[in-house]
What does this fold into?
Amino acid sequence: MTRLIVVFALIAAASTASAQNRQKEQPDGTIAPSDAPSTMPPASPAAGSTWQADPKTGCKLWDEFPEPGESVSWSGGCKDGYADGHGVAQWSVNGRLTDRYEGDYRDGKENGNGAYRWKNSGDRYDGHYRDNQRDGQGIYTWSDGRRYSGMWKAGKADGQGRFITADGQVYDGIWAAGCFHEGDLRAHVGVTAEACGF
It folds into this structure.
């Protein structure tokens, strides 16, 4: 019997200039056997993370993946100089919109419920955040129709979750630190296959 291995890689590699966002969409892996590329922001922040201030208000937002020519606009509350409360953050590089977050901020970071849209890929995430990472219940939808719906922890699938491929295959069950293993089925979300031992 042929062993079915579903590879759902999400590698936090360096992004190209066309993949610009706070949670940066990355070329990150494939799903066998179609070899269709997938993109998804990495779970871990990059070295060099910093605060980025809205030039109009001076309100600061956390930038995990700073880039040359990058700017942010924030329309929401500002407490002690940091984004706080419900609002909209729009990130741009050299004046070109790259992504948009509408939701809750606390202490300058995404905390609470929010909706993130990546303009370059067309991907989106709707759900809960903690300190700029997907954490709690949430749905990540790729532009090609793939979808993961379930629990997240520190940017990785963790807890009850369901992944549906573009061709309708379903992987439903318990995820741990980004890894899914049930019988011959294996998948990973937010980590590499090697990190899962696949």
User: Anything to note?
Assistant: Residues 1-22, 24-39 have pLDDT under 50 and may be disordered. The chain has one domain: 26-196. The two ends are 18 Å apart (CA to CA).
